[in-house]
Amino acid sequence: MPAKKTYGDLGDACATAHALDVVGDRWSLIVVRELMLGPRRFADLQSAVVGITPTVLTERLRHLAGVGVVEHATLDDLARTRAYRLTPWGRGLEDVMAALGRWAHGSPGFPVAGGSMTPDGAIVAMRTMTPPTPEAPRPVELGIDLVDVRRAAAGVRRYRLRWRARSFELVEGLAEAPDATVTGDSTAWTEVVFGMGPLEEAERDGRLAVDGDVDALTTVLELYRSVLAG
Asked: What DSSP element (H or E) covers 211?
């Protein structure tokens, strides 16, 4: 098979064309999305990026490492597990993906009917739609424990949302003293956050459970509802 020509090979000096040479292949930005919140093992990525084969994932990771977006990492566990993470330059893609995500919200084909979200995808979407320095009506800390029911064996991913005054933090990790903790399916959580389904219904059918101060959770949900309302 002849080597695939890049835009650079064709003499296109545009920076956008170069960006497409770096991350424009199918799956590349999806792999980046799943690395946005921290290092992941190959098996984590294989589970999260639904539809990708091990061979293609290996090729994408090799390419992304070769162009400086991804690098190898060692997890801080007893086994010193090998993993992948974004480079500092690669982490800059969050702003790019956020702009694409906000743009996609105006598409006549969005939201995707019957679509699902991974835990990291749900949190990255929340980060995308969080306004800059939103003012907190009250201090809030949430624990958000999500599982992708399509890949339940992958286990639970834990995240911490902390909102104080104009400081808003949403990261991977265990909440230390949460006002409330949400547990359940990542797609159901996405639907609740972005107004596609009521929290009460998700609780009723067992897709989500809330432990703690429901008013604290409502404060966060109202932030996203205000964003979507424009």
From this structure: strand 208-212
What 3-state DSSP class applies to 85?
A: strand
Return the residue matching tokens 């080597």: 3
The pLDDT > 90 percentage for the chain reads 79
Distance from C-alpha of 193 to C-alpha of 199, rounded to nearest angstrom: 9
pLDDT of 178 higher than 80: yes
Query: pTM, whole model, 2 decimals?
Result: 0.91
**226: number of Cβ within 10 Å:** 11
C-alpha dist (Å) from residue 151 to 13, 82, 170, 184, 200: 42, 21, 23, 13, 24
Instruction: List the one residue out of 30, 186, 42 whose CA is nearest residue 93.
Output: 30
188 pLDDT more than 60: yes
